[in-house]
Amino acid sequence: MVVVPNLSQAGQAVRNPLAFIAQRWTPSPETVRRAALAALVMSVVIVVTGGAVRLTGSGLGCPTWPKCTDESLTATGEMGLHGAIEFANRMLTYVLCAAVGWAIIAARAAKPWRRGLPRLGWAQFWVVMGNAVLGGFTVLTGLNPYTVAAHFLLSSALIAVALLMWQRADEGDAAPRPLVGKPVRQLAWVLIATSGALIAVGTLVTGAGPHAGDSSDVPRVPVKWETVSQLHADLAWVVCGLTIALWFVLRAVDAPAGPRGRVRDLLVVLLAQGVIGYVQYFTKLPEVLVALHMLGSTLVWIAVLRVLLSMRERPATEPGEAPLPVSAASAPEPAPAG
């Protein structure tokens, strides 16, 4: 028989730091929810600050990647304000990573252990890493508008995963139970798809518009931004129409208050975003309004996803299943590494 020596605490911490923390700390459910919310908030902040980089013409303030210049990892005084802005935005990626890391640690240490929550946290981490690399390619390609658009769309995917983790942190692990009928859920999915198309076309408006992100000769999408803006506005009206239709359908089927409230919230956000969009169009895209519109796009996406998520519930246990005893729920249980 082979005797396996006990690992020291330091050895355990190095071998599996997340399990080591989980054995010694149990966060409250509220702590887990706040950690997930922090990751969601930072995923929105990084979009807005990325827009600020573009709108201030600082997209190539650091002309290379992963270093700021060929000789320096950080921005230098000679690079001026644009270099400082671009480098500061890069540093915010580390803040985002810290927020996502905190969410992963809190989810992993929660008792009883839930496999789904840490996975959603790790999904965010890998999306952030992928988007950081894509951001590097964006700089190396001189702010190619298509890589810029992909960079924004991947940020939207990050927001979706972060929102789902925040939602799941407040739910149980039983199978989801629909609160409305299948046709209503299908209408919500159509709303999701149309909203995704709206955001995608919005990135083309940016790629064709006057805010290239830098004062140098930056490639643009070869269409008139007014033409793409018209398509963007048409899609916005379709999204508004679907939202209103969904609201009437939910009232007609006497749906619970939750889905009706989420649709009402979405309609309010859409109307505010529409006002900003039309004002910025007729005022030739001033930077402040474009920044507000970018923030609004993230809020619209969150509101749309919350509509879909409100149409089901996930209790802690299946019907007829006894809840976990308090002692079992609070006791640490072994789990796979990571």
Number of helical regions: 11
The portion of residues assigned to helices is 55-70%
What is the overall silhouette?
flat
Give the low-pLDDT segments: 321-338
Number of strands: 2
Pairing-aware structural class of the strands and helices?
mainly alpha
Strand and helix order: HHHHHHEHHHHEH
* Main beta-sheet annotation: 2 strands, antiparallel
Report the β-strand fraction as a percent range: under 5%
Mean pLDDT: 89
Chart the SSEs and their pairings.
Elements: H1 9-15, H2 17-24, H3 29-55, H4 80-109, H5 116-140, H6 145-168, E1 177-178, H7 182-208, H8 225-252, H9 257-282, H10 287-309, E2 312-313, H11 326-330
Antiparallel strand pairs: 1-2
Helix pairs in contact: 1-2, 2-4, 3-4, 3-6, 3-10, 4-5, 5-6, 6-7, 6-10, 7-8, 7-10, 8-9, 9-10
Description:
This protein is an all-alpha fold. Helices cover 68% and strands 1% of the residues. Strands 1-2 form a two-stranded antiparallel ribbon. α6 (145-168) crosses α10 and α8 (225-252) runs antiparallel to α9 (257-282).
Q: What's the short version?
A:
This protein has 338 residues and is mainly alpha-helical. It has helices at residues 9-15, 17-24, 29-55, 80-109, 116-140, 145-168, 182-208, 225-252, 257-282, 287-309, 326-330; strands spanning 177-178, 312-313.
List descriptors.
flat, 11 helices, disordered C terminus, mainly alpha
